[in-house]
Amino acid sequence: MTQPRDKKLDNRREPFRIGLAYGAVAIVVAIATNLYFLFIDPRTSSEWLLAVIQQYRTPFALTVYIFLGILAALRVRPSRLDPGSSYGSLLVRDGALAATVIAVLVWVSLFVILALEATVFAGAMRDYAQAAAPRIVHYVNEARKILSNPPPPARVGPVRSALQPPQLWDLGRSIFNGVLRAIIMGGVGAAVGALRGRSRRNRGQQERG
After folding, report:
1. 8 Å CB contact between 170 and 118
2. pTM, rounded to two decimals
3. What is the mean pLDDT of the chain?
4. pLDDT score of 87 more than 80
């Protein structure tokens, strides 16, 4: 009596365990891509590195989060069918759950990081912006010279403003972004589970055929 119940409980806990494992990697990515100014000296680092970090750190982090959600959805394997549920539906459920756990961990870490940037690390961010903005603009304006149809030249003011620390009221926007991220990653995990379930059905039909 207790053994099937324990198996059912383990079956439901597996997406959480996988989500926590990949979520730990996502937290490291969140720290590296948001607290970069603590590890990089803008006065001695290459100008191209500063420009790449400024331009691509957010898209890179989002790509990694989604990739980790896909990996988590591929790892889940329901060990026992619930009554009235197909294996494919459990793959959808567990894939969505594992990816959503990652999204929640990312949101919590980004919420804490944002609060720290607005308070404890605000001075460090301003110092980084003051030193990095002119070098980023110099690199971008030099690079645009090789283009046949270059964009307007970059200016120090907007770049420096983009590097400034957030305000505490930005925490509200962080909550909205966290909810949106959880919906997207949950949908991605569910889609991966659905594809796995369809692939499994197709294999079964081919074996029977």
Report:
1. yes
2. 0.84
3. 86
4. no
Asked if 53 and 40 touch (Cβ cutoff 8 Å), the reply is: yes
DSSP class of residue 164? S
Place of tokens 């605000």: 122
- Helices and strands counted in the chain (H then E): 6, 0
Question: Which among 78, 71, 79, 93 has a CA at the least distance from the CA of 187?
Answer: 93
CA 66 to chain centre: 6
* Residue 174: domain span: 2-208
Question: What average pLDDT does the segment 26-47 reach?
Answer: 94
Cα dihedral value 190, 191, 195, 197, nearest 10:
20
Residue 32, classed as helix, strand or coil, is helix
- By the 8 A CB rule, do 182 and 100 touch? yes
Domains contained in the chain, number: 1
For residue 200, the Cα-to-chain-centroid distance in whole angstroms is 29
Alpha-carbon gap, residue 185 to 97, rounded angstroms: 9
Of 1-5, 49-53, 93-97, 146-150, where does mean pLDDT reach its minimum? 1-5
